[in-house]
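QUALITY CONTROL LOG
STEP: pairwise intake check
CHECKER ROLE: data steward
CRITERIA: each record must contain a sequence immediately followed by its structure tokens, with no blank fields

ENTRY 1 OF 2
RESULT FIELD BELOW
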Amino acid sequence: MTLFAKNNGEQSARDAKTNIFKILFGAAIGIVTYLVLIFIFAFVMTVSSVPDSATVVFSFAAVAVGSFVAGFAALWNIGRGGLVNGLICGALLACVHLLISLVFGDGGRIIYLIVSAAIELVLSTFGGVVSVNARAK
């Protein structure tokens, strides 16, 4: 069942509400995955001689893996609508990322934010489709 069902019954409203909570749970799993990867990458950069210019690559890699995990986790329990619900999960992640960047950022690197949002939308959608297809088999 996708987030917004075609019929207007009480069951579809209940399904939409539970799907919203499942998508929020998946987004939370993705954010935790992102934070764990950022901590690992920060530790690696601290103890080794990785140049500071690698922070952008590490950041995009953490966003990519976190977004994929978010879409996968969100759609694992829903089981349908991987494309639409994965895109909704990615949009939620992009909104959280945008809000945090606007509050704590200096505003000078807006292109990184745009690229991160695109990565979040695409890979969470891909994670949702992979999750639904893996569960179907």
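ENTRY 2 OF 2
RESULT FIELD BELOW
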Amino acid sequence: MKIHVAKMSEETIEGYKHVVVSDNHINFMDISDNECSEILANDVLDSFFSDKTEDCLVSLVNKLRLGGKLIVGGKDLRLFCKSVINGSIGTKDASQVLQNTNSMPLLNDLMPIVQSLGLKVLSTQISGIHFEVVAQRG
């Protein structure tokens, strides 16, 4: 099973089951542990408070089968601040981002957590203020 973890308002992706994420919660009610071959959660970390980031990752990994792939991401605080300082993001847009984001973990801080959960990092990608980590459960 492939799932897309996203807010209710986001479009569904063909071939993926839409799983709703809200503040500090992913609705995995009808998905068993070790059931997913792929989890696309490219903005999920924005919905969790910083002290709940590891809990979020644990719940995602629990649903992932051995050999399964996890794509997880969010906004990086360091990239966000840099973009505001250099003028790439104006104050109005920056305020909007802050209003719609519960936390912005740093990519460098996230990597050890991902690896400690038994995932092998396959790649990382940064685009603007957003990052994604692609990892596989071993």
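INTAKE CHECK: passed for both entries
DESCRIPTIVE NOTE, ENTRY 2: The beta strands are 2-6, 17-22, 25-26, 36-41, 64-75, 119-127, 130-137.
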